[in-house]
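The records we work with from here on pair a chain with its fold. Here is one such record, which you should read through line by line:
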Amino acid sequence: MGAKHKGVLNVEGQQIAVSNPDKVLWPELGITKLMYLQVLAGLAPYLLKHCADRYLTTIRYPNGIHGKSFYQKNAPEPTPDFVRIAHQGDIGYVVLDSLPTLIWLANLACLEFHASFDRIGRPLHPTEWVIDIDPSREEEPRIMEAAALVGALLESLGIPSIPKTSGATGVQIIVPVTGDMTFDELRGIGQFVGEYLARKHPRLFTIERLKKNRGELIYFDYLQHYGGKTIAAPYTPRARKGATVSTPLTWDEVRGGAQPGDFHLLNIGERLRRTGDLLQSVPPQNLRPILAFLKQPQPMR
């Protein structure tokens, strides 16, 4: 089709123009824009759930994943009437709360969706605690071993959690919380867990912030979880050769050696029909007893 080929989709009563539906966005898998829109429509009930009340940052790839890209925080212009905007400072963020908004963004070649940790209207009290396990090298065969150790330690503290691939190289560990703690309080727990793991497994973990000083260790990032910062949203695609998708896992899958590249745009739909949203499998946790314990004076050794 010609470069200026366009079509129109009727999405929940909204007319959305689609430009260049045959444009290939992920060349290695032959995924065109139209295919992408179709898969996203199936992902929408899951992706929207975890973005609808967050400040959204997208990454746009107008010519596919191997072309130039740019981050977009402010809502693209012109903005359709059906798109809601949330203002924070001098930025007007798109509120990703509807299928028409998602399809409109996807037509603009938004291939990644990153959601803020803080919720719109609730900046101080997060509703989940997130630990980011970040490899220092592009290929890290130990990443699931590291994630399993984090999960086991949290379990020993009485804290159930859900692992999630970033869709890139890392894994995030997510604990839904009751929403009565601050980011700083959760950071305190994260620091304790990270320092303990770095001491117990010094050849695997580090809490060193500077990447140049980490060597080949896996970074236990408890600092990223903070107001104003973002995470690859659950179920967002990633602009990588394998068209990977950020995917929640079971702990059995982690211990069984699942890899971030296992879940992608061509198989995520079938997986979700089997598993549903695993992020709903753990109820909100009250972590105040953990924080109170950590604040107690520790006996001299």
User: Anything to note?
Assistant: Residues 6-119 form a domain with the DNA primase, PRIM domain fold (CATH 3.90.920.10).
